[in-house]
Amino acid sequence: MNSTDAAQKAPAKDPWELPDVSGLVVGVLGGTGDQGRGLAYRLARAGQKVIIGSRAAERAETAARELGHGVEGAANAECARRSDIVIVAVPWDGHAATLTALRDDLAGKLVVDCVNPLGFDKKGAYALKPEEGSAAEQAAALLPESRVTAAFHHLSAVLLQDPAVEKIDTDVMVLGEVRADCETVQALAARIPGMRGVFAGRLRNAHQVESLVANLISVNRRYKAHAGLRITDV
Fold this sequence. Notes:
single chain, 234 residues, alpha/beta, Rossmann fold, NADP binding, oxidoreductase activity, acting on NAD(P)H, oxidoreductase
């Protein structure tokens, strides 16, 4: 049997067969902001070991105590070094500076960028396009020794932080260059009840995913909602 025949006979992998990530430590840079706090809370509540980072360790430690569920707080550099997966949830205007300062600490790490470059004026929110193409592509350019993915862009910080909300019914679009890394992030998303991680392409497609948040902000304002996304037929 030649290699072509063997490949044809090999069973296709189930796309929903994802790795066990329950033992991984998740760091959240920007963990004292609304989105970062919400993600840290949900993952810790699901049983994940979580460390939140801030420029000031004391601020991170205070936020960690408020979140409970075993969350720890640390300065950004320590958070990055102690984590297996690092979620970047910092404000867009501090994105490049934060990642540049942490380049060495993030080397070898799986980095998940969830930053949405947005501007605001009297007409509402609108998407910005970074020189690199997207926030995720900027992260990849600044962190050449890290494995950068993009995910968690479309989640409501209000729902994430509300302890009365048991499930968050939404899909998380995951983008990246290495399928195994994307599957790890998909599995992390699936740790949160109601969520599902869905592979959505390579990082070159991250801009439109990040930009969609501007539309969701308009939806939420018009309908007084906390809208998310569901992808049909998968």
